[in-house]
Amino acid sequence: EWKEVSENRRLKQLNHLLEKSSIYANYLLNKKRQKRERKKQKKAKSLSKVEEKPVKTLRGRKRKAETAEIPVVDGIMQINGNAMPSTQPEYLTGGILRPYQITGFEWLRILFDNAVNGILADEMGLGKTVQCIAMICRLVKSGFAGPFLVCAPLSTICNWINEFKRFAPRIPVVLYHGTAAERCVLASTISSVSSDLQCHPVVITSYEVLIRDRPSLGQFAWDYLIVDEGHRIKNMNCRLIRELKLLKVSAKLLLTGTPLQNNLSELWSLLNFLLPEVFNDLSTFEAWFDLKKMQKGIETEQQQDVVNKLHKILAPFLLRRTKDDIEIYLPPKRELIVFTPLSESQNEIYQAIVNRTVRQYLQEKENDEQYEIALESISNDSNQSDQGFYERETRSSTLSTRQLKEREERSTIQDESVINVSLSNLMMQLRKCCNHPYLIKYPLLPGTDIFRVDEDLISSSGKLQLLDRMLPVLKKNGHKVLLFSQMTALLDIIEDFCRFRNYSHVRLDGSTKCQTRQERIDEYNSNRDLFIFLLSTRAGGLGINLTSADTVIIYDSDWNPQNDLQAQDRCHRIGQTRSVLIYRFVSANTVDQFMVERAEAKRVLERMIINREKFKGKLAEDLNSK
């Protein structure tokens, strides 16, 4: 009886949530229908009117030409000789929007006009950025003076600047970044008004700067807030979401290609940020949409009904198109999981870690030859996953200022082996062993503190042996490679390998400065002879365009499968002309394989809720029926 009462109460709460969501949906769709009727009436009236008289005087023609935004041929605006869609914003002059992008822009416009926030969740690589730029162009043209705020990952803010310059060069843009003194000067420019379009600028900044400068940025009343890679606020208790909620904002938009990553509470966090008056009770949301039942698959009519209701709840606020949904040709993408065995030394260390005898094992090895041992417990916290780990010596040819300081601090350490083994995070030590044993013990040249780089670097790791066999073939056949890893320390080892085999390469990770990031991206895309791009998955897997590559190697997988998908789509996106092949390296019968299997299980819920063919956004379907 108690269960029946509880079930009835949950059903009542769910129906209430569904009712509130439906109010938004019906309101927006009615507005759309009304607009269509007005447009039909306006068109009918215009047909009955006499054409506008041509401008006869030279002065009049000159004045009209000066006010024209883009060339007009036979009454049709054009860009590079191509007709511009009548619905494309006038200030978007750097290219022609594709039909599905026009639909997305229209969806954003309707949400804004009716004071509703939303999530643009198009699959990665379909041009969410340009749709947002189109929306800001429309706002400026409609008389909204701004300012407008874009908050994005550090790796993408330079790309935002470049896209504005390319597609909407007349829209004023400010990159809010740099030192505290520089940001203080930049803050004063936000109040300035463009003499051309009479509007405040679009301010582009990173998550970290926004958190640090929220009191300063909070003084402005923002017409539009765009949070790029919006899944960054999936944790409802993170500081970023708290600071964003304190801003004075008229309208909010989240951009994410992966709105559902691990569980429904993360999706609810996004919805609560956008629409707190609708999504205000996480416990009810989670209680009804039972995650465990959904991951087992839809087996009953009742469970199917629950999923259908969730689709209806999300429909007004979320627009999602995949590459298969749109009428555009993209070369195929194929992923291969390549299982590799552990080398002999890897297997010995792996078993020693499992048996918690690794300290004894390393000390015994120390009696045979000199090793540099550097193990540190690395948290599985995603915010720390890109920090690497302690190294006693760094390659002198690639020392950063921070690394030089660390080197000076370590110069007092005696030139003898240091064993600093921590097993407080056993999983991380096993992962490092699967990637390369040098992450646990890196041999030195006798009598020096210089790392030894020779054939043993390759033979001691099963994955690196595979990479060493693959790369010559890929290079010979003219392919360009993106290699992703979770660990910056592993990228150090891959860099040693690339130098040893004379492979041209560039690198991008969490420590790469903003300007340097864009320079390296541009260099890799423009230089056909630049073979390999080494990237940390979380710093290099977001919002950057590397379509010059056609091969992706996932050296080690992420617990969150969406991060690896983001990484793959750096090259499988609009602009790619070749088939894309992804190789995922997995050490067989180890924690490596366990991680891949767990990640695949997490995708079951995402496929069910977000990527259903029937779920493209109710409003989007209505727009497509025009």
TrEMBL record:
Residues 32-46 have a biased composition (Basic residues). It comes from the Eukaryota. Keywords: ATP-binding, Cell cycle, Cell division, Coiled coil, Developmental protein, Helicase, Hydrolase, Mitosis, Nucleotide-binding, Nucleus, Phosphoprotein, Transcription, Transcription regulation. It is found in: Nucleus. Residues 466-626 form the Helicase C-terminal domain. The keyword Lipid metabolism does not apply. Transmembrane segments: none annotated. GO terms for cellular component: nucleus; pericentric heterochromatin. Residues 109-277 form the Helicase ATP-binding domain. InterPro entries: Helicase_ATP-bd (IPR014001), Helicase_C-like (IPR001650), P-loop_NTPase (IPR027417), SNF2-like_sf (IPR038718), SNF2/RAD54-like_C (IPR049730), SNF2_N (IPR000330). CDD domains: SF2_C_SNF. The keyword Hydrolase applies. Residues 32-61, 381-409 are annotated as: Disordered. GO terms for molecular function: ATP binding; chromatin binding; helicase activity; hydrolase activity. GO terms for biological process: cell division; DNA methylation-dependent constitutive heterochromatin formation; negative regulation of gene expression via chromosomal CpG island methylation; pericentric heterochromatin formation. SMART domains: DEXDc (SM00487), HELICc (SM00490). Its main location: nucleus. Belongs to the SNF2/RAD54 helicase family. PANTHER family: LYMPHOID-SPECIFIC HELICASE. Plays an essential role in normal development and survival. Involved in regulation of the expansion or survival of lymphoid cells. Required for de novo or maintenance DNA methylation. May control silencing of the imprinted CDKN1C gene through DNA methylation. May play a role in formation and organization of heterochromatin, implying a functional role in the regulation of transcription and mitosis. This is Proliferation-associated SNF2-like protein.
